[in-house]
Structures are given as C-alpha cells and as structure tokens.
TrEMBL record:
Fe cation binds at residues 81, 83, 125, 127. GO terms for molecular function: metal ion binding. Keywords: Iron, Metal-binding. Its cofactor is Fe cation. This is Pirin. Belongs to the pirin family. The lineage of its organism: Bacteria, Bacillati, Actinomycetota, Actinomycetes, Pseudonocardiales. Residues 1-39 are annotated as: Disordered. Binds 1 Fe cation per subunit. It comes from Pseudonocardia alni.
Amino acid sequence: MPAVSVADVSALPRVPVPGPTDLDRGVRSVTTAPRGYEGEGFPVRRAFQGVDLRDLDPFLHMDQMGEVEYAPGEPKGTSWHPHRGFETVTYIIDGTFEHGDSHGGGGTITDGDTQWMTAGSGLLHIERPPESLVRSGGLFHGLQLWVNLPRADKWLPPKYQDLRGGESALVTTPDGGALLRVIAGDVAGASGPGSTHTPMAMVHATVSPGAQLRLPWPRPYNALVYVLSGSGTVGADRRPVRTGQLAVFGPGDLITVEGGTGQESRHPALDVVVLGGQPIREPVAWAGPFVMNTREEVQRAFEDYQRGRLGVVPSDYVPHGSLPGSFN
C-alpha cells in the first residue's frame, strides 16, 4: 500500500501525549461494509451502509474502491453523471484515476493524491482509469467520500482542489509505531492541505502490529474509523475490527486504534481512515447524485439536469475504447 510513506518516521513531528483528563471515546457500533459495484462495474465496499445518517453527519457516503488487481482491458470507471449539493473526495492509494467535468476542471491522481470536488450548484462529471492502465491492467485501490454542504453553500460555483500526496502533513506517534497522513483538518498539531466548507478532518493512518494510536480529536466532531486493510482493535475496550469494517465512536477527546500482532502477509500493518466533522444538522433530501435540503430542490435538480442546465459533455472529450462518453 504505497500512498505516502517515509523511510524514517523518527524525523516526523509526534502526536501529543494525552492529558490526564482527556476522555477516550467509546465505540458505539462496528458495522461491516457490503460489497457492490459502481459505475461501469468496478468493485466497491459500501463503507457507511447500515449506519444512521445522524451518526455520519456531515458525511453522506463512502466507497472503498478495490483493492483489485486488474487484468489488461479490465479497468473500469464511470460514464458522465451529474452532481449537485455536496463535495466528493477521491483518495487514491494504489493506481491512477482521471477526473473531468463540464466546467473544464479535473486532472489525474495517483498514489497518495486526493481530488476534492465541490459540486455545489451542479456539474457533469466523469471518473476513469487512464488509457495506459486500461491497456496494461494493474493494482487499483482508493476511496471516494461524499461530504454534505450546508444550505448556504449548496449553490456555490463548482470547484476542484488537486491535492498531491506530498502535500499531506505527516505525523507519527511518540514511539514511532504509526504513520499519519493528514489530508484535511487540524489534527495533532498538523494541518492537512484540503480546504473544507464544513469543519472536518481526514487522516490515513498506518498502525504497526502491536502499536497503539491515541489520537486527540476535536470534541465537537463526530468520529469514524474505517479499516482499509488489516486487523486490530478500536476504543479503550479494544473492540476487534478488520478490513471493511467501520467503527462509530461516541463523544470524548481521544480516538484509540491498535494494530493486531498478527497480520496477513499481503498487508503487514493495520491501515485505517479516520474521519470526523462538525455536524451540519440540517434536513437532508437525497436522491441519486443530488443532495439537497428539500424534495422540491431535488426535483429541480433532476429537471435542470434533463434540460442541460448542469452542463454538457465537452466537445473535445475523447472516450477510451471501453469507457463510453454518453449519459446514463
């Protein structure tokens, strides 16, 4: 799992040692993500399925894409599709993905890169592997997170943030047993490069076997830990977790994650994504690619899409051999 790594963690800043009055967050639930398929047929785990939206707020949805080893000709993406009212955060751990939209935004992201797309008032969007990966096949693994926007920001103009992996703030634990990549938010004295409309934090942590991460976490934020690979425990009571499981924490000051002493040879450590944000606490009206506050706003979004008001496929768009450029 390449993402971003360092040869010597001893040179990195350390996570602060918890204070005597800091409260460990208890684990409220552990759920297992069901498998499914997205877009033109790439495999995903539905990380948030079965979890109440009130526990996820300000987050809406997250897919773990892969981990999959494609044969030549197998890599798949999505066709052109609309979004309005929220943000998509695509984090690539292994492999390469291309993005494009009807406003001319987009780019290419690879090992450890993140593309933060504010759909806002609406756009058409496509995600796909590059032609070279389609031809050669190869390993692909990533995440896509949907972050809700508050009512006041749902009509913002669309925007991209292209975050290179090298921009992530790197931190380690006092004993060097865990490597943290801070992608967004202020965590343990480090600030991630992502600019967010809703106060939030996103961290990819690799925890060595037997090592413990006690991560200070803003008390107003909710707290979620999703296991990308490996096994270990979460919380002070050491609830077991493994690949594809999501832990939802209760209130407090600290998130505790511990790597299991026995890991698979393919994944020598526990890799997790830690998420949290300030709940928006507004009504959510959600249908397909549109997330608004009322059913009427969602209906208007569908009408605007059907009438071409969210944009058109760029005239210079060239589809890959197996990736059509038509609308669904």
